[in-house]
């Protein structure tokens, strides 16, 4: 294997790779939303349905956080930036799916539109920022783990899933008004942030 082929295997941030990988991320998000809608329509409201929705949220969140860094083979700042770009493009792809497919089918009520006075444009940038942020943090974590020789996806995902469930459990125990699945999503984001920042701090 030549030096150039080794270099090409890590820190992938070229435009074509970002667009292809981001499109895959967008379809993962779309699949998770469609699956959530199917669960809501087929399962009776209660513990079972909430557990299924929470599982989808946590697993999809972990995948969309960690896969961009894996696809970008993040090892340095270049690869981490590539992961963030993949996350951003993934949100754009999902947005297109949302507008072209889900909205015409009236798949679910767009309460965010009502909050924004009927406009979608106030929350779409927030969605873009969230997807980019998750992929960025995931890229940092991927790069830090790779430096220690840990490249397995399951090893990175397990703490995220555990953290999400712990935070959601604590929020429920403290009487938070948010649904368990929503609290789990927030918990995953918080756990990912803590792990990524800790990884960067250890490097210094």
Written account of the structure:
The protein is mainly α and 204 residues long. It has one domain. 78% of the residues lie in helices and 0% in strands. It is built from 8 helices and no strands. The longest helix is centred in the first third of the chain and has 28 residues. The protein is globular and about 45 Å long. The N terminus is likely disordered.
Name some characteristics of this structure:
globular, 204 residues, 8 helices, mainly alpha
Could you outline the blueprint of secondary structure elements for this entry?
Elements: H1 3-8, H2 15-42, H3 47-71, H4 77-102, H5 111-115, H6 124-147, H7 153-173, H8 180-203
Helix pairs in contact: 2-3, 2-4, 3-4, 3-6, 3-7, 3-8, 4-6, 6-8, 7-8
| Tally of DSSP β-strands | 0
* Average pLDDT level: 89
| Rg | 18 Å
The residue fraction in helices comes out at over 70%
Count of all domains: 1
Could you give the order of the helices and strands?
HHHHHHHH
As a percent range, the share of strand residues is: under 5%
Counting helices, strands and paired strands, the structural category is: mainly alpha
> Low-confidence spans: pLDDT under 50, at least 5 residues?
1-7
Distance between the termini: 32 Å
Number of helices: 8
Largest sheet, described in full? Answer: none
Shape: globular
């Amino acid at each position: 294997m030549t030096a150039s082929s080794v270099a090409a295997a890590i820190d992938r941030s070229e435009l074509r790779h970002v667009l292809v990988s981001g499109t895959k991320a967008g379809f993962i998000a779309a699949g998770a939303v469609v699956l959530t809608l199917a669960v809501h329509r087929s399962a009776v409201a209660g513990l079972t349905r909430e557990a299924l929705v929470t599982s989808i949220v946590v697993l999809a969140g972990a995948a969309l956080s960690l896969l961009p860094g894996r696809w970008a083979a993040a090892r340095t700042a270049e690869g981490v930036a590539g992961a963030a770009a993949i996350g951003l493009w993934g949100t754009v792809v999902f947005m297109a799916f949302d507008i072209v497919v889900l909205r015409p089918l009236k798949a679910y009520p767009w309460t965010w539109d009502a909050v924004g006075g009927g406009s979608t444009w106030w929350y779409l940038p927030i969605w873009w920022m969230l997807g980019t942020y998750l992929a960025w943090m995931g890229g940092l974590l991927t790069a830090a783990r790779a430096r220690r020789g840990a490249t397995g996806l399951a090893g990175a995902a397990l703490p995220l899933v555990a953290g999400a469930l712990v935070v959601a459990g604590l929020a429920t125990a403290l009487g938070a008004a948010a649904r368990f699945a929503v609290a789990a999503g927030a918990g995953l984001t918080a756990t990912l942030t803590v792990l990524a920042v800790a990884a960067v701090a250890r490097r210094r």
